[in-house]
Write a structure and sequence with these properties.
Low-confidence stretches: none
CATH superfamily of the largest domain: SGNH hydrolase
Largest sheet: 8 strands, antiparallel
Helix content: 10-25%
CATH class of the largest domain: Alpha Beta
CATH topology of the largest domain: Rossmann fold
Shape: globular
């Protein structure tokens, strides 16, 4: 296996010239043309270039409400956000560079579950004379299941649209950065163990990318994590303890059947919703752990959603808890 290391990031170099898709991507035809699509902020694409000073991303805008943002990171640098209508990724020079593309910000209210509205990417093309090939990050893979806090809703501003929402300003990004791992997002606004919100319940998300695209059918999505982190419960505040206990028990049983040997960490919701039930059920599962969140100095945009600074604190606190548990 040939590898390439840049800024403490190690990648396996793949043999073909295709970008490596990681996360909840699936194949979708748009106007008769094949695309790679995702309805999940935080889904990623990895590739390496040489011999060019830019790369073109051919997105098709299939959204109804507002144009989404992607972000790009060159050689592990801080991600830069762009509208999908700004398709050119500039490179520092024509030397060898690693590139990570992140589905960074969609708008709440787009039809993610039934309509599969999100990002649709037709092609990635290096500028004339350039070479492109796929790379796979070798760092441990961590699944982050959650709601709008995991997705990065209102992380940048009060707007719950693509302008204010950002996966690269959400706690999983900062947690992964602190741990040196690769994040795999499964975050959807207003969802929970019971509430379907803007996608569906966590149980549906475990096996489904949408109502008609199973996780098992997508090589990009059908990955085995090294660790699972959950932060659900806030959106189920209107349901009784018994209702939540029943839904969480069924969901966790499904999760453990799918990933029987993978440790699972449940981060208590910042609002402490259903905390007692979460502690009780997690104590009954093998490889189950809890990270307490009460008293964390989180700053918010609206009292519920952490802003970028608050998300960074949350991510670093979760990373610290995972280290103390000896899981990474």
């Amino acid at each position: 296996m040939d590898t390439y290391i840049v800024n403490n990031h190690t990648y396996e170099i793949l043999e073909d010239s295709k970008p490596y898709f990681l996360g909840r991507w699936f194949e979708k035809e748009v106007d008769g043309t094949p695309h790679m699509a995702t309805t999940t902020d935080g889904a990623q694409i990895y590739f390496m270039t040489e011999g060019c000073t830019s790369v073109n991303l051919s997105f098709t805008d299939i959204t109804h409400i507002r144009v989404p943002y992607y972000a790009y990171s060159i050689d592990g640098s801080e991600p830069i956000r762009c509208h999908i209508t700004d398709p050119t990724v500039p490179l520092p020079d024509s030397g060898r560079h690693t590139v990570c593309i992140i589905a960074d910000g969609m708008t709440e209210g787009e039809g993610k579950w039934y309509e599969e509205i999100g990002f649709a990417l037709k092609s990635i093309t290096p500028a004339a004379g350039g070479k492109l090939w796929g790379i796979r990050p070798t760092a441990p893979l961590v699944f982050f299941y959650g709601d709008s806090i995991t997705e990065g809703i209102r992380a940048i501003s009060m707007a719950a649209d693509s302008d204010g929402n950002s996966a690269t300003h959400a706690y999983p990004w900062y947690c992964a950065e602190a741990l040196g791992v690769t994040p795999y997002y499964v975050g959807y606004g207003a969802t929970g163990m019971i509430r379907t919100g803007w996608f569906n319940t966590m149980a549906k998300a475990i096996d489904g990318l949408s109502w008609r695209h199973p996780v098992a059918d997508s090589p990009a999505a059908n990955q085995k994590p090294d660790l699972i982190v959950i932060n659900h419960g806030t959106n189920d505040m209107d349901f009784s303890m018994l209702e939540y206990m029943s839904a969480m028990n069924a969901t966790m049983s499904l999760l453990y059947r799918r990933y029987p040997d993978v440790p699972v960490v449940y981060v208590i919701p910042l609002q402490q919703t259903h905390a007692t039930i979460i502690r009780r059920l997690m104590s009954e599962y093998p490889n189950g752990y809890v990270i307490e969140s009460e008293g964390w100095p989180i700053t918010y945009t609206d009292g519920i959603h952490p802003n970028a600074a608050g998300a960074k604190v949350m991510g670093e606190r979760v990373a610290e808890g995972i280290r103390k548990l000896g899981l990474i």
